[in-house]
Amino acid sequence: MVLDTDVIVAAMRSPTGASAAVLMAARHQLVTLLLTVPLAVEYEHSCKRLEHQLAAGLSLRQVDLFLDAIVAASEAVQSRFLWRPQLRDPDDEMVLEAAVNGRAKALVTFNIGDFGAAPSRFGIEVIRPGEVMRRLRQ
């Protein structure tokens, strides 16, 4: 599965929420996270924004450790094909491309509407973190 940046930021800001639980599931190898270099850079850019860092109560060093843990728990994906444009928001394209190139079954986001029908054309389901955790408990 590929995590949208909003899920990563939510996990950092709220360590007891569903987004953080998805990361813990990946750490325990219950799910496989897929990650491209551009998406990892996007995670870093967003998590290091001062507003998110302050809301999470983390130092810059702690944010780096958080990001390092995500990279360590993820499987690297090479973007062999660029599928643009597929989405209304160009910033979401790298998330979809990671999912398509990694042959992900799911793209996890809070902004389901931002992805429209494009992921389904590639056999990718768009779901929220809470749904991931609900399915893992079944």
Can you describe this structure in just a few lines?
By secondary structure, this protein is mostly helical. It has helices spanning 5-13, 18-27, 37-47, 50-56, 60-72, 93-101, 118-121, 129-137; strands at 2-3, 33-35, 74-76, 106-108, 125-127. Helix 1 (5-13) packs across helix 3 (37-47) and helix 2 (18-27) crosses helix 8.
Describe the protein's architecture and organization.
- The chain has 138 residues and is mainly α.
- It has one domain: 5'-nuclease (Rossmann fold).
- It contains 8 helices and 5 strands, in the order βααβαααβαβαβα.
- The strands form 2 sheets. It has a 3-stranded parallel beta sheet with strand order 1-4-5. Strands 2-3 form a two-stranded parallel sheet.
- Helix 1 crosses helix 2 and helix 2 packs across helix 8.
- The longest helix has 13 residues.
- The chain starts with a strand and ends with a helix.
